[in-house]
Amino acid sequence: MIRLHEPRVITPRPQLDSEPSHDWRVLGLCAQTGPVDDVWLPSKGQPARHGKAICLSGCPVIRECLLFALNSDRQLEGVWGGTSESERRVLRRKWRARKAAEAARRQAGAA
Ligand code: SF4
């Protein structure tokens, strides 16, 4: 697993221009709270509820954040899109199964 928490770092706009797909990061509530590890990266066995509560309190980019984490090839640690790692493991399995089913349906329709 990789500790990757760029969304919690306020990145200047010019630097983000080279990564337009990640512009949402500066809008996250976590960008305002800063990199507080015990909130966004709770130790193993510690609850992620504080970070999740911040996400769910109205983060304007919660959908983008969750999709980023689910689509990532890497297993991201900590809280993303209002979910904990274990919640994302379950979601990722369902998400990938749904994407595979949709691709199969599209392929069957094209044949
Ligand atoms: S959903 Fe949570 S982790 Fe994602 S950008 Fe918003 S506050 Fe940050």
Automatic annotation (TrEMBL):
<keyword id="KW-0411">Iron-sulfur</keyword>
<keyword id="KW-1015">Disulfide bond</keyword>
<comment type="similarity">
    <text>Belongs to the WhiB family.</text>
</comment>
<protein>
    <submittedName>
        <fullName>WhiB family transcriptional regulator</fullName>
    </submittedName>
</protein>
<dbReference type="Pfam" id="PF02467">
    <property type="entry name" value="Whib"/>
</dbReference>
<keyword id="KW-0408">Iron</keyword>
<feature type="domain" description="4Fe-4S Wbl-type">
    <location>
        <begin position="29"/>
        <end position="90"/>
    </location>
</feature>
<dbReference type="InterPro" id="IPR003482">
    <property type="entry name" value="Whib"/>
</dbReference>
<keyword id="KW-0804">Transcription</keyword>
<keyword id="KW-0238">DNA-binding</keyword>
<keyword id="KW-0479">Metal-binding</keyword>
<keyword id="KW-0805">Transcription regulation</keyword>
<keyword id="KW-0004">4Fe-4S</keyword>
<dbReference type="InterPro" id="IPR034768">
    <property type="entry name" value="4FE4S_WBL"/>
</dbReference>
